[in-house]
Design goal:
With 337 residues, this protein is an alpha/beta fold. The chain contains 4 helices and 40 strands. It folds into 2 domains: 86 residues, 3-Layer(aba) Sandwich (Udp-n-acetylmuramoylalanyl-d-glutamate--2,6- Diaminopimelate Ligase, Chain: A, domain 1), CATH 3.40.1390.10; 211 residues, Hexapeptide repeat proteins (UDP N-Acetylglucosamine Acyltransferase, domain 1, 3 Solenoid), CATH 2.160.10.10. 18% of the residues lie in helices and 30% in strands. The longest helix has 30 residues.
């Protein structure tokens, strides 16, 4: 669907520098843009490439000027990029209704506006809210509750009792509510501790593909509002994740650890169990966290420590071969005297 530069500027809260009636039919990166396309530039290097491209207009947030392109100046070009893409590439609207191959328990409640795709299974007493979309092959266990506009991509599994808020997106292959890893030694055997809690996911959460979030042993495992979880993440039983956290791919969190709000765990971070991670904590990639972290700190390494301390240790290790060489030379001199 085409838009004028003025319409896009209004949508983004920006201003047009040039022809406001210019028609834009698509969005593309500068190296692939064609006439009629919109692109964006968040720094001088990007702007030079965008101005030399075939694009007809550029979203900017700096003091750039151009005699060749229409510019749309906004407060933040990257945020504008995220806002404008849905205009040109809207998600498909799935029709309401239940596919004839779906298996729905008679006691389940499905809002008439929801879309239930092929081969989905909806258990007893499950509730599917307005405008939800289950793409296909999804399993929603007994007593699950889905709020408004929840999207389950193919082959998502929700174990019994899972509670999901509004506008939650869960990508393919993810399992929510599987048993926590709980065992006790009994006569040389590992006796399973029944996991009778559930998982609660708050509003506006997005969960990537092939994520596993375990149900609590007694109480819930909780994912806070606005949190985003990348692919291949493991969240163990009774973990609490605060609001607006970011968990990057292959993060693993052991049982009963609590994360504050706005925590960032980079790729392959591992957290031991029963820790408390404060608000606005950042942990660098491949770090292994063994102790609790206060608010606002940045940690690094395995075992993880405050980043400045770890960086000093890394620098010292890099200097160690030279130090050993110098010590060896001193020893030879002492032995020769």
């Amino acid at each position: 669907m085409p838009f004028t530069a003025a319409e896009i500027a209004r949508h983004l809260g920006g201003e047009v520098l040039g022809d406001p009636d210019l028609t834009l039919r698509g969005f593309a990166p500068a190296d692939r843009a064609q006439p009629g396309d919109l692109t964006f530039a968040e720094n001088e290097n990007y702007f030079r490439r965008a101005e030399q491209s075939a694009a007809s207009a550029i979203i900017i947030d700096g003091p750039f000027t151009s005699t060749a392109k229409v510019l749309i100046r906004v407060p933040n070009a990257r945020i504008a990029f995220a806002k404008v893409l849905p205009l040109f590439f809207p998600e498909p609207v799935l029709p309401p209704g239940v596919h004839p191959t779906a298996v729905v328990a008679p006691s389940a409640a499905i809002d008439p506006s929801a879309h239930i795709g092929p081969h989905c299974v909806i258990g007893d007493q499950a509730v599917i809210g307005p405008r939800c979309a289950l793409h296909g092959g999804d399993h929603v266990g007994a007593n699950c509750r889905l709020g408004e506009e929840v999207v389950l991509f193919p082959n998502v599994t929700l174990y019994a009792g899972t509670e999901i808020g509004n506008r939650v997106r869960i990508h393919a292959g993810t399992v929510i509510g599987s048993d926590g890893f709980g065992y006790v030694q009994d006569g040389g055997l590992h006796r399973k501790v029944p996991q009778i809690g559930n998982v609660i996911i708050r509003d506006d959460v997005e969960i990537g593909a092939n994520v596993t979030i375990d149900r609590g042993a007694l109480g819930p495992t909780t994912i806070g509002r606005g949190t985003k979880i990348d692919n291949l993440v493991q969240v163990a039983h009774n973990v609490t994740i605060g609001d607006h956290c970011l968990l990057v791919s292959q993060v693993g969190i052991a049982g009963s650890t609590r994360l504050g709000n706005y925590v960032i765990l980079a790729g392959q971070v591992g957290l031991a169990g029963h820790l408390k991670i404060g608000n606005r904590v950042s942990v660098a990639a491949q770090s292994g966290v063994m102790t609790s972290i206060p608010d606002g700190e940045k940690w690094l390494g395995s075992p993880a420590a405050p980043d400045r301390q770890t960086k000093r240790q890394m620098i010292a290790l890099q200097r160690l071969p030279e130090l050993l060489r110098r010590v060896a030379e001193l020893e030879k001199k002492l032995q020769s005297t």
